[in-house]
Write a structure and sequence with these properties.
two-stranded antiparallel ribbon; alpha/beta; 4 helices; Dihydrofolate Reductase, subunit A; 8-stranded mixed beta sheet; 10 strands
Length: about 160
């Protein structure tokens, strides 16, 4: 199963401030929508509660507190390992969509990083983890908006 991480991060690697995203960049959420449409998303409970259940997506929610949801499009797990094991029998790709703890647990296992770089440095208490040295940015596209941003595609470096 392919593991893809998708995140928007600021110039200072901030991805959140509590349950809030500390910026509003018009158009940026369309990238998330396009890449996650009709996919399984792996998220932590706080991220799931913050974003809510999005249409045309299925969720694997990791919670250490015993969180449960009766929705048929939401599966709940006690750990990332348990979720990934189950997801490997459901799909050929999972989109890891946060929060910070889930990204930290999955980044070393990732096959692809879909990152939006927000060209600002807001205050925040949740950061995206360091990108492993084994990854290289292979594509960038810039967007002008009320807050400018760039989409970046990162893949593992190929051995020569």
């Amino acid at each position: 199963m392919k593991i893809s991480l998708i995140a928007a991060r600021a110039e200072n690697d901030v991805i959140g401030n509590g349950a809030e995203i500390p910026w509003r960049a018009r158009g940026e959420q369309l990238i998330f929508k396009a890449f996650t449409f009709n996919r399984w998303l792996l998220v932590g409970r706080k991220t799931f509660e913050s974003m809510g259940k999005l249409p045309d997506r299925r969720f694997a929610v990791v919670s250490g507190s015993g969180f449960r949801c009766e929705d048929e499009d939401v599966a709940c797990f006690a750990s990332v390992e348990e979720a990934l094991g189950w997801l490997s029998k459901q799909t050929d790709e999972v989109m890891v969509a946060g929060g910070g703890q889930i990204y930290r647990q999955c980044i070393e296992r990732a096959d692809v990083l879909h990152l939006t770089r927000i060209h600002a440095a807001p205050e925040g208490d949740i950061s995206f983890p360091a990108i492993p040295a084994s990854f290289q940015r292979v594509f960038t596209q810039s967007f002008n908006s009320n807050t400018n941003y760039s989409y970046e595609l990162w893949l593992p470096s190929q051995a020569d």
